[in-house]
């Protein structure tokens, strides 16, 4: 029941919001998002920290085709639901000093997108998963098209077609597995697992590629990333945050929940290529990030680097890799939202995102400098920040798969420090110039967002255990299951 | 059968209206008649009546008749303006109603003669209606082209029927099957007959390479008639096509399967790719209508237990989506005197309601969840997958991506481009209600497809 509430509350709230006019919309949207977070926290208190799937709801949806409305929450889903429901109110709060035209439609779309995202994370039926997966695309497409920046029609359309193309491959893979389910065909996750694991290695390979492309486009993994920098740069700040903070996790989550158990032999067979692509993407994106002049674009590339490492960790199929990926998904979500918010703050005050044009903001606004520094340290994975735990586990996981790959992936930490610290230096330190000298102090809502994010960075950097406890039984069970399927 | 009788009598009543001067009452009478026909049709469910071996009212026929009547009802609501001019009013009513009679015959025939009659009863009113805008040159051109090409296709069809009769000695579908399976039929003549009929049917459903008439005819005809052709005519033609090929000609599937494979691939690619470069929305929708025939051919080709319900669902989803798009195109093109894509610029600002309904309808035609069109495509792909046509599914996936491109051109125009004037386009209240109903129906069919697909 609580799962249904988690899915449908944002939808109802979003639709109701369409009928609200005037400045109340923001507050109401924030209220709805906070309420949704409260529901998620309540679910967490009721959640038994073991590997079982809880709060299940199974309803025959399209009976004649074996399609069910089957949802439930296990540790992996719980963590991502928490991330989604935590980030959406923060993202709404970031817009408190921005005036969007037609705000009721804007916030309504954000809430409807939240519904689809939660749906993706709790689906236990292949068809339902696909429907939510595609459903998430429509609101974000309109958010980017209606409120985005220059040249948005072309860029958002490229994004739409890219992800849709990937998804259609996944649909093909799912239908293929569905037709191999024993007895009455069914899309239920357990039946699909059985069908996938009963295939031979060649056919699991086909399934692997069909689904991997969909997830790789969403994350994005090199060479499927070309839509990402443009889209992140053009989208309105809140859209970028939804994309990078939460939507990206649909891809990594998809690999954990669907790809690994559906085609373990396929993953094992092609892991070298897939991890190779991911790790190459890490180094490649980091190098490009170093050369960026636009700060928003730099963060977009750094996001490719981070997610590449997450993908590599998951595909190494060991406990450390997957566990690290889960933690890192959470940290990356929080940090990247913080970074994009900082970009937005700077842009609003100085009308530029060009790193070289800025400088000396610390002299004008030291408080902002400190908060920025904390977010930045989190994203370069300094020990005692939230980024460290995940990155450490991920590198450990990749090392077990192949030390060389881990070596290359480790470059991301160094390169990440290079481009992040360099841009910090150029933006915040040095001489104050005409553009930055009038840097206005932070508004209350802006301060609130940054403090929430910094608190999350430090608290979960020092005490990661509550989070790992939620997820580790499910991860252990997943890895055990995979090892059985692989005959280890 | 009762529905068929009722529709025919409605047609006759429409003709009498001129003599007994109750023209004003005709519109409500027809709407009421359609509702009654729908109810009567429901009573035929599960009865499996046959009439002198000529017509067979199995569930297949009843389901398709139901879809045709519902779409016709929506069409009449949309086309109220078409029945407002004083001259020729009763002719218009009678012609449309007789066309419906033909459509119902095409989904329920059990005899080649009835198939032929159904096709002709449907086609001849359509030839006239396509030219019903008498003062417009392109409408005249459209009617003339349609007539010439249609007559040509009928020739093929008739020749095919004649050869099949020669090979098997019967017009009756079950006797044809018997003759083929018992080996008494002259197979070489029979195969040629099947291929000739395939050409005729492919023309009627506008499958490539027999689609060339469609864009010109669709563009030239009055928008309302275009909507009728691309929904009801297409549904009926596909139902007839499927009824013939999935049962009677299944024995000789080796003869036509490969041909239909190539036709499906061509239709998907030609329809979608050509639609991309169109600047007129009507012409774009015409090509998209060709493309949708391609998807339905996939299910026809699959010839398995999913085929019937897949085509039923697809035809229904596609028809209601098309009614909505044509209705909005009609509203916009009358207001702005142009049916170009750029006449949709800025519609989201001036008429948000129209823009939202148009978006839902286009998303459905493009096959994006949670709309009816998505489930329809999914179901078609599944049926093709089961039949092992993986290559064709891949082509269809690529084709639907191309489809997204041109449907989204309209969406981008509506939301992103600036309009020239800021005045809202006037919308009649019956159109508003109709569009609202269709928008809800599209989502509802996407969320609860079971209601339709478990019929067959």
Can you put this structure into words, describing what you see?
The complex is a heterodimer of chains A (488) and B (456). By secondary structure, chain A is mainly alpha-helical. Chain A has a domain at 285-488. Chain A has 20 helices and two strands. A two-stranded antiparallel sheet of chain A has the order 1-2. The radius of gyration of chain A is 21 Å and the shape is globular. The mean pLDDT of chain A is 90. By secondary structure, chain B is mainly alpha-helical. Chain B has one domain. Chain B is 77% helix and 1% strand. Chain B is built from 19 helices and two strands. Chain B has helices at residues 2-20, 23-43, 59-78, 89-108, 112-130, 137-168, 173-182, 187-204, 213-220, 223-248, 253-276, 281-302, 307-336, 347-350, 352-366, 372-386, 390-415, 429-447, 450-453, and strands at residues 49-51, 55-57. A two-stranded antiparallel sheet of chain B has the order 1-2. In chain B, a hairpin with a 3-residue loop joins strand 1 and strand 2 (55-57). The longest helix of chain B has 32 residues, at 137-168. Chain B starts with a helix and ends with a helix. Chains A and B meet through helix 5, helix 6 and helix 7 of A and helix 16 and helix 17 of B.
Brief description of this entry?
Chain A has 488 residues and is mainly alpha-helical.
Count of DSSP H/I helices of chain B: 19
Determine the fraction of residues in helical runs of chain A and give it as a percent range: over 70%
User: SSE order of chain A in H/E notation?
Assistant: HHEEHHHHHHHHHHHHHHHHHH
Overall shape of chain A: globular
Shape of chain B: globular
State the low-pLDDT regions of chain B, or none: none
- Order of helix and strand elements from N to C terminus of chain B: HHEEHHHHHHHHHHHHHHHHH
Number of E-type strands of chain B: 2
What topology, given as strand order, has the largest sheet of chain A? 1-2
């Amino acid at each position: 029941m609580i799962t249904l509430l988690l899915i449908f509350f944002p939808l109802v709230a979003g639709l109701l919001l369409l009928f609200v006019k005037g400045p109340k919309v923001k507050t109401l949207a924030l209220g709805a998002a906070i309420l949704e977070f409260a529901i998620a926290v309540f679910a967490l208190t009721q959640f038994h920290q073991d590997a079982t799937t809880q709060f299940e709801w199974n309803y025959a949806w399209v009976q004649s085709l074996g399609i069910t409305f089957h949802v439930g929450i296990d540790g992996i889903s719980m963590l991502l639901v928490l991330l989604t429901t935590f980030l959406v109110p923060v993202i709404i709060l970031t817009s408190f000093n921005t005036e969007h035209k037609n705000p009721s439609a804007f916030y309504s779309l954000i809430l409807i997108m939240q519904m689809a995202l939660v749906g993706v994370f709790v689906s236990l039926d292949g068809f339902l998963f696909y429907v939510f997966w595609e459903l998430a695309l429509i609101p974000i497409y309109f958010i980017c098209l209606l409120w985005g920046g220059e040249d948005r029609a072309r860029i958002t359309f490229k994004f739409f077609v890219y992800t849709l193309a990937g998804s259609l491959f996944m649909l093909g893979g799912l239908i293929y597995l569905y037709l191999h389910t024993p007895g009455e065909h069914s899309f239920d996750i357990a039946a699909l697992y059985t069908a996938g694991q009963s295939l031979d290695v060649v056919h699991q390979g086909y399934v692997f590629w069909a689904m991997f492309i969909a997830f790789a486009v969403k994350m994005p993994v090199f060479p499927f990333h070309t839509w990402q920098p443009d889209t992140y740069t053009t989208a309105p700040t809140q859209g970028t945050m939804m994309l990078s903070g939460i939507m990206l996790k649909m891809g990594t989550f998809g690999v954990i929940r669907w790809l690994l158990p559906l085609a373990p032999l396929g993953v094992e067979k092609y892991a070298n290529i897939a991890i190779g692509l991911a790790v190459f993407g890490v180094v490649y994106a980091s190098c490009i990030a170093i050369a960026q002049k636009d700060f928003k674009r730099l963060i977009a590339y750094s996001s490719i680097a981070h997610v590449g490492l997450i993908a590599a960790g998951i595909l190494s199929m060991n406990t450390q890799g997957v566990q690290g990926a889960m933690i890192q998904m959470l940290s990356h979500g929080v940090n990247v939202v913080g970074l994009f918010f900082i970009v937005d703050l700077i842009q609003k005050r100085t009308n530029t995102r060009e790193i070289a044009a800025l400088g000396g903001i610390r002299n004008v606004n030291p408080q902002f400098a400190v908060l920025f520094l904390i977010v930045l340290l989190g994203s370069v994975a300094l020990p005692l920040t939230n980024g460290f735990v995940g990155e450490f586990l991920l590198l450990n996981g990749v090392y077990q798969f192949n030390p060389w790959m881990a070596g290359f992936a480790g470059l991301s930490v160094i390169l990440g420090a290079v481009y992040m610290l360099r841009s910090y230096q150029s933006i915040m330190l040095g001489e104050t110039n005409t553009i930055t000298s009038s840097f206005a102090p932070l508004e209350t809502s802006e301060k609130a967002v940054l403090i929430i994010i910094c608190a999350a960075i430090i608290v979960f950097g020092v005490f990661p255990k509550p989070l790992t406890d939620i997820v580790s039984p499910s991860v252990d069970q997943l890895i055990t299951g995979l090892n059985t399927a692989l005959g280890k | 059968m009762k529905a068929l009788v009722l529709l025919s009598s409605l047609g006759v009543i429409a003709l009498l209206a001129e003599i007994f001067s109750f023209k004003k009452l005709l519109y409500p009478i027809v709407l009421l008649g359609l509702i009654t026909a729908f109810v009567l049709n429901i009573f035929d469910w599960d009865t499996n009546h046959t009439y002198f071996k000529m017509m067979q009212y199995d569930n297949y026929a009843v389901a398709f008749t139901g879809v045709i009547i519902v779409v016709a009802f929506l069409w009449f609501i949309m086309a109220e303006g078409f029945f407002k001019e004083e001259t020729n009013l009763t002719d218009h009513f009678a012609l449309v109603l007789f066309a419906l009679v033909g459509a119902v015959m095409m989904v329920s025939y059990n005899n080649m003669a009835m198939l032929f009659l159904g096709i002709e009863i449907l086609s001849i009113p359509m030839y006239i209606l396509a030219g019903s805008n008498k003062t417009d040159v392109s409408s005249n051109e459209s009617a003339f082209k349609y007539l010439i090409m249609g007559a040509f296709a009928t020739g093929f069809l008739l020749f095919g029927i004649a050869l099949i009769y020669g090979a098997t000695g019967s017009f009756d579908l079950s006797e044809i099957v018997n003759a083929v399976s018992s080996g008494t039929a002259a197979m070489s003549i029979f195969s040629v007959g099947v291929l000739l009929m395939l050409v005729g049917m492919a023309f009627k459903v506008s499958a490539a390479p027999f689609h060339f008439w469609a864009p010109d005819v669709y563009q030239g005809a009055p928008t309302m008639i275009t909507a009728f052709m691309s929904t009801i005519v297409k549904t009926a033609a596909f139902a007839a096509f499927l009824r013939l090929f999935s049962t009677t000609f299944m024995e000789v599937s080796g003869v036509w399967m490969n041909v239909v494979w190539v036709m499906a691939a061509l239709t998907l690619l030609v329809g979608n790719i050509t639609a991309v470069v169109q600047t007129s929305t009507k012409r774009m929708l015409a090509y998209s209508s060709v493309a949708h025939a391609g998807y339905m051919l996939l299910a026809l080709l699959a010839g398995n237990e999913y085929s019937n319900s897949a085509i039923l669902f697809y035809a229904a989803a596609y028809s209601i989506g098309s009614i909505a798009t044509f209705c909005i195109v009609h509203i916009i093109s009358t207001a702005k005197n142009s049916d170009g894509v750029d006449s949709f610029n800025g519609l989201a600002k001036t008429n948000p309601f129209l823009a939202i309904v148009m978006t839902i309808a286009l998303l459905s035609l493009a096959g994006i969840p949670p709309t009816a069109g998505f489930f329809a495509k999914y179901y078609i792909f599944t049926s093709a997958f089961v039949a092992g046509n993986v290559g064709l599914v891949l082509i269809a996936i690529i084709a639907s991506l191309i489809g997204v491109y041109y449907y989204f051109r309209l969406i981008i125009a509506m939301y992103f481009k600036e309009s020239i004037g800021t005045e809202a386009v006037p919308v009649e209240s019956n159109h508003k209600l109709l569009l609202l109903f269709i928008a809800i129906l599209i989502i509802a069919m996407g969320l609860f497809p079971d209601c339709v697909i478990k019929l067959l």
